[in-house]
Amino acid sequence: MLEPKEREILKILERDAKATPDKIATMVGIPEAEVVSKIKEFKDKGIIIQYKTLIDWEKAGEEVVYAFIDVKVTPERDVGFDAVAKRIYNFREVHSLYLLSGTYDLSVVVEGKSMKEVAYFVAEKLATLDHVQGTVSHFVLKKYKVDGEILEPAQEDKRLAVTP
Amino acid sequence: MKDVVISDKVMNIPPSGIRKFFDLILSMEGVISLGVGEPDFATPWHIRDVGIYSLEQGYTSYTSNAGLIELRESIGERLSKDYGLTYSAQDEILITVGVSEGLDLALRAIINPGDEVIIPEPCYVSYKPCTILVGGVPIPIATDKTKFKVCSEQIKKAITDKTKAIVISYPSNPTGITMNQEELLEIAEVIKKHNLIVISDEIYSLLTYEGKHTSFASLPGMRDRTILLDGFSKGYAMTGWRIGYAAANKEIIAAMTKIHQYTMLCASIMSQKAAIEALQNGRIYAQEMINEYNQRRRVIVKGLNEIGLKCDMPGGAFYAFPSIKATGLSSEKFAERLLFEEKVAVVPGNVFGNCGEGYIRCSYATSLEKIEEALERIRNFVR
To answer: Which residues of A are less than 8 Å from B38 in CB distance?
Structure first.
């Protein structure tokens, strides 16, 4: 179990990977050295996986297409879904992969430069894998919220500039 | 028509000192405001959703004067759970249009012309004018020498045979100062001894960062002499909904309800519906906002002290109240020059009472990025 201060450090970093130990120390109210050692500990334990940047590629004018692919698979003896998953997530085109409850087993998020490229990957690479029984592709038309961040421009401050 | 249209009473009340400042800022661009006395968060979505849904359902009518019973019951539960207080939802809780109305009703209900009301300063801008408007006489106590906490000695000195009530407001706007149970117990003694009524403005109760908020009404013997005022504006980021409540003994609530029914009739039904949602499901979302204020609080106080504007760590609300005495400027001059030279808006401390002179109020109900930028600009200004 995390201590409240530990959770707070992680929450701050989850929203802002650039938050410096000095700033985090002030925000949480503990010494900077303690923040540094906590962060190292989180990294070592694999609790902090990676520091990344959320980028709106569309805004940058890049062609990027995402599709959510529902995949039905036959689990393998002894290793269950994990072995199939491994065969899938190692493809560079696979952005994310989840094991789900419900009608389908795996949800694969595939990234490509065009619908054609993604469709090609699904047809040629994904659907032909052993144990894959069938796939259904859903192309992303618009992103509204990604990893907790709303992509619309922030609303302007509607408050009066000075109030009692 | 008579020459003088406006009543003497109103003529004699000075306009809020904040107003003058506000007009200045409107004419400028690129200003970072630390002058806002309300949350920078919009009301959590689940609460807004209930407000919208209530309109769709056709909840567009009056409610009973006292307010929806379901809301009063939820408030009763909250006061019982948080403070161990028992109030009857039936006749000891009144839904008001924000604490502002609650304050006005409380004063009107208990003050006869000439009655004195003790008001520790610096304090929220309405206490004095509202007291005057009901014919009372405000008796300010300066708390700048006692770390902005009112103490029993000061109250004793202010008491005369005309003293009827005292306004207590912690966590404080503008200082952010909180008082713990022990400190409050000490003043409760004096209040009991001199048979005063307490108007306790606890609108910032949820925004308490160190320990738990102590409601004045929860102190031994204080429940029946305290008019507890609280609401949803600050804790649940619902300022624009104008919704609050008063809890007190039957007799006082009946008197306040009498005035309320003739002047306000009731609080808006949509806001009452939303407030029920806030109480029943909103605490965790409120806590998220509170955690963020708490982080900003540490950043702004550290920053101000590093700049050389001495500031004690406030335990509640979302204000830092640093001293600007080291600059040799008056509060108003400081605020005015900071606005023109560095485009940062703060509120001069004297707006909240004479003893606030030499201080400024900096609200940290604004994003961390803006706070950091504002601190940088203040640093440039003070240099």
So the answer is: 159, 163
CA distance B268 to B249: 24
Q: Could you tell me the pTM of the whole model?
A: 0.93
Q: How far apart are CA A152 and CA B58, in angstroms?
A: 31
Q: Do B26 and A28 touch (CB under 8 A)?
A: no
Question: What's the rounded Cα separation, in Å, for the pair B360 and B354?
Answer: 12
Compute the residue count for chain B: 383
Tell which residue, B147, B319, B352, has the closest CA to residue B234. B319
Q: Locate the chain B residue with the closest alpha carbon to A160.
A: B36
Q: Could you give the angle at which helices A21-28 and B283-307 cross, rounded to 10 degrees?
A: 110
What SS3 class is residue A134?
strand
Tell me whether residue B69 is exposed, middle or buried, using C-beta atoms within 10 angstroms of its C-beta: 0 to 12, 13 to 18, 19 or more: middle
Crossing angle for the helix pair A32-44 and A4-15, to the nearest 10 degrees: 80
Spatial distance between the Cα atoms of B130 and B120, rounded to a whole number of angstroms: 15
| Tens of pLDDT, residues B133-172 | 999 999 999 999 999 999 999 999 999 999 999 999 999 9
Q: Report d(CA B99, CA B242) in Å as an integer.
A: 8
- Give the DSSP per-residue string, B166-180: EEE-SSPTTT-----
Is residue A95 a contact partner of residue A69, using CB atoms and an 8 Å limit?
no
Please give the residue of chain B at the shortest CA–CA distance from A22: B299
Place of tokens 């003739």: B262
Q: What is the Rg, in whole angstroms, of the alpha carbon atoms belonging to chain B?
A: 21
DSSP B321-361: --B-GGGT--HHHHHHHHHHHH-EE-EEGGGG-GGGTTBEE
- Please write the tens of the pLDDT for every residue from A109-161: 999 999 999 999 999 999 999 899 999 999 999 999 999 999 888 888 889 88
Beta carbons within 10 angstroms of residue A121's beta carbon: 22
Q: Characterize the bridge pairing of strands B116-121 and B163-168.
A: parallel
Asked if B32 and B373 touch (Cβ cutoff 8 Å), the reply is yes
User: Rounded to an integer, what distance in angstroms lies between the CA atom of residue B205 and that of residue B235?
Assistant: 8
Q: Where are the beta strands (DSSP E) in A6-83?
A: 65-73
| Chain A positions in Cβ-Cβ contact with residue B40 (cut-off 8 Å) | 157, 159
Alpha-carbon separation of residue B40 from A76, A155, B169, B355 (angstroms): 53, 11, 22, 28
Burial of B184 (C-beta count, 10 Å sphere; 0-12/13-18/19+) = buried
